Amino acid sequence: MSKNKFGLEYGFQTRAVHSGNDIDEGSGAIKRPIIMANSYALPYDPTDINWSSTDKALYTRNSGANQLYLQEKLTTLEGCEDSVVLASGVSALSSVFFTFLKSKDHVVCSKITYLAVYRLLTEYLPDKYGIECTFVDSSNLEELKAAIRPNTKLIHIETPGNPIINISDIEEIAKIAHNNNALLSVDNTFASLYNQRPTSLGADLSIESLTKYINGHGDAMGGAVLGKKDLIDKIRKEAMVNLGGTISPFNAWLIMRGAVTLPLRMKQHNNNALKVAKYLESLPFVTFVSYPGLKSHPGHEIAKKQMKNGFSGVLSFGIDADYDTHNAFISHLKVITSAVSLGHDESLIVFFGPDDERQYLYPDEFSNGFFRFSVGIEDIEDIINDLKQAFEKVGLSY
After folding, report:
1. How many of the other CB atoms lie within 10 Å of CB of 241?
2. Cα–Cα distance measured from residue 245 to residue 132, given in angstroms and rounded to the nearest whole number
3. Nearest CA to 281 among 197, 384, 151, 356?
4. Exposure check for the chain: N or C terminus, fewer CB within 10 A?
5. Are 311 and 292 in contact (CB under 8 A)?
6. Does residue 29 have a pLDDT over 90?
């Protein structure tokens, strides 16, 4: 743990730079080193060890040094009591489900959610563990309330939602969850904790795929769960140690390095994405643009309320064209890369075809297929010009 604490009395950028960092006592280096050790020296009387402690490195699957440094930084940035870092975003998500759910429990989940979550809640957890799930439009509070049962233990939402970028009201859903003695977990990956802090809005747990914006460079995988200490301790004891979804020291170090520039990068992502969304919305052959920063987005007012610093860098859009034209458009892009994932420094785009397995969950305007576009931090003129030349090459002009 760092000697100097940087709490919420400091600005976000100052916390991003200094939290979790300290002078290394062994070398005098002013940056935390990579500590590639599995085991750490035990105290004189090891029988008193608290193996879920976050104060001392003991064994990398429990609490390695680089894990502890990263957890300190993330906890400070979220402004919550504690956090636990894991091997990936999916590891973080599954740790919540396996820790807080048991056989015959019920989950309410937003129907627009990450594919791995959808499969966990429709296949693995029902078939193997007898856990039931009801999927709802989480932007419809009455529909969400109606889905709650006496055995509902968890409400899980994703906002903005992947891949159609819908918005759910965290604060109102937290009230509903707590009035029904359920926990609320929020996948905050698309917003990042720079733009939105779910625990400050009443969520019990905030989940981040560190692979995305927090690392920001597309070169390391990790996940985190942030929230109240008693809940995080339970995840640490039951899921991290026993299921083994441990982040490597190197990835923890890379993500900690990336998090230093999170505020700077997010400002550029936010600004670029809003400009791209407005550009696309002006084109006659673009059938829709889903971005919460646009006044036309149905969740715009809620997004303004809970996304304090910006609307993040991901949007989805459709074009009036056949299947082959969608793919041809992507093939002509030069600055923008066709690849999965999001939140990298570079712009990434992926086409969701009309045969997507979750197509029946999407609004009608998405039925012809659509693009999910993670807008990078390149010069905005180059991004828009790249879109323009690719549109022109497939005969879409204006």
Report:
1. 17
2. 24
3. 384
4. C
5. yes
6. yes
CATH no., domain 12-259: 3.40.640.10
- 3-state SS assignment for residue 24: coil
Using the CB atoms, write b or e for 79-95: b if 16+ within 10 Å.
ebebbbbbbbbbbbbbb
Token code pair at residue 392: 């022109």
Query: pLDDT of 243-259, one tens digit each?
Result: 889 999 999 999 999 99
Could you state, in order of their start, the residue ranges of all structural domains in the chain? 12-259, 262-393
Q: Estimate to the nearest angstrom the gap between the alpha carbon of 7 and the chain centroid.
A: 23
Counting other chains too, the contacts that 384-389 makes at CB distance below 8 Å and 24 or more residues apart are 384/275, 384/276, 384/279, 385/335, 386/333, 386/334, 386/335, 386/336, 387/276, 387/279, 387/280, 387/333, 387/336, 389/332, 389/334
Residue pLDDT, tens place only, 32-64? 999 999 998 888 788 877 766 656 788 888 889
Q: What is the CATH number of domain 262-393?
A: 3.90.1150.10
Active-site positions? 61, 114, 187, 212
Single pTM value for the model: 0.95
Provide the token pair at 298.
């149905």
